[in-house]
Amino acid sequence: MKASDFSKQLRDEVNGLIANGQKNIACRALVRALEKNIPKLEEAEQKTRQVPLDFQLAHYEAQIAAKSQMFASVLDYGKHALNAAMIINAGAAVALLTLIGGLFAHSSQLAVNYASPLLLFVVGVLAAAMAYGGAYCAQYFYTENSESKIGKSFHTLTVLFAIGSYALFLSGAISCYLILTSKF
After folding, report:
1. What is the pLDDT of residues 9-25, one digit of tens each?
2. What is the largest CA-CA distance in the chain?
3. Could you tell me if 88 and 169 are in contact, meaning their C-beta atoms sit under 8 angstroms apart?
């Protein structure tokens, strides 16, 4: 409470005593009158303090909810990126195995040329699987401590494995293209 507020309040109390017929104010009477109003004032102060606290709490809860929703969204996008890395590499490996099977009927030498791209797709599947494992470990360590250095390391490894998986797919696709265009 500011000194000016206290002075105004004391003035109002003294005026209230005068209005009730008191001509002189004894110190004890003034103290009794002030003590009678202290519980009311404390209750009013508590209510005025509660409003900003309620607002701050609501604001904090809204921030936490927004961060939680954003985190769930990030996890969802990460999961989809890892699924895509796994699917494109595995699909390419299966398609290439089908092609190799068909080529062996005509020319085993032509089929052998596709061994390197097949290896790139298979390693891409492995990199995507490693990224899944890294994502699990990162989440585990982040759950224990959100500032975990181990969690951050696994997070970084997960991203590198995912990017590596995409790069391996691209390399395998380019390699297949070069083999196809050089033979025909």
Report:
1. 777 877 787 788 777 77
2. 123
3. yes
